[in-house]
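User: I'm curious what two different proteins look like when written out as structure tokens. Can you demonstrate?

Assistant: Sure. I'll show them one after the other, since each token string lines up with its own sequence. Here's the first protein:
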Amino acid sequence: MKRFLMALAMLAGLATAAAAEIGDDGLHKQPWMRNTFKDLREDLEEANAEGKRLVLFVEQRGCIYCKKMHEEVYVRSDLSDYIAENYFVVQLNLHGNDTATDFDGEEMEQSALMRKWGILFTPTLIFLPEEVDAGRTAAEAAVATMPGAFGYQTTLDMFTWVNEKRYDLDDEEDFQRYHARRIRERQEGATD
């Protein structure tokens, strides 16, 4: 009976959300992504008003790793639901000509902003705190940055670690230790 219940739980975890559509800019679009004026100061205020965390998704047209994340990872309903419930997601284009305004008040094309922040890879996720000191950039203020494509469990653990503000705890469990512990806990749960 226990194995049957575990199998059902695993199948439930495999449920998928709707696949992302491709926007006019060539980037994948998820229902939980926000269409904003890309003034990060305003986006942070709105995220806080909703009781959510601001995260920036930096992507680019034709990115095979972005495609992998949208087609294999973000389609997992538990992850997609977690992001929708806890995060205010703003998508930025590594090579975009549309403007965005950084926390320091500087407005520029998104491509220039990505160079300013030193973003080299897509996808890159930039997780922001609830408050950003005046004059700081998003890259400087970030509580965590996740460059590259990762699997479902690593991605879920990162979103959870940030949402639970574990980066701010004094228990010295950085993300790598947290993720390793979560892997062990999942393995032990599967063998009980």
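Here's a second, unrelated protein for contrast:
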Amino acid sequence: MAEIVLNVEIRDRTGTGGARESRRAGMVPGILYGGAGAPVAISVKWNEFRKSLYTGKLLGHLVTLKYGDESQPVIAKDIQFHPVTDEPVHFDLLRVEKGSTIRIAVPVHFKNQDDCPALKQGGSLEVVRHDVELSCPADAIPEEIVVDLTGRQMGDTIRIGEIELPKGVTPSIADRDFVLATLKVSSAAMSEAADAASDAAEGDTVEAEAEAESED
């Protein structure tokens, strides 16, 4: 059951003018598309949309769209924000048919950094993908992809094939085992090692010069 309900209104005007009109009326304009129906211009009251947005369970999750007595499960596929105020200015909703499979980006999170030998040795986690597009049932979208760093060694490469995904969920890129992250020697550690080598070389030079002078 969807946790968020968006009460929408149908917009008579479309395009930039219609969107601006909705914002002036205290609404956030959006578009509903996908499935068998035609695209529909909609809007949601600004305060209601903002409240749903900051639950953290709007974008990329299954929610319920309500228009009067009608309801429709949808996925919030995209939200656009004002470049200065960072407030929502437009959103896209995708219709979801019962039993359908969708593609959606899911965030990648890493856990147990304190139990990672590579990080304890001064290594760094180089994240290649912060999210991964998955093909999954619309009513079973994973909240996140979790990578356990326990026991990971310096030089390890973490690939999607190592991650256990829920039943029925697969990466949309199916033809290769792509990289999520690598564990490398950090730039700071490399710099320290270079400085130490330089100091050692300088010490050897001074010692050699001192020995040469004593022989003279």
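A detail about the second structure: The chain has a mean pLDDT of 85.
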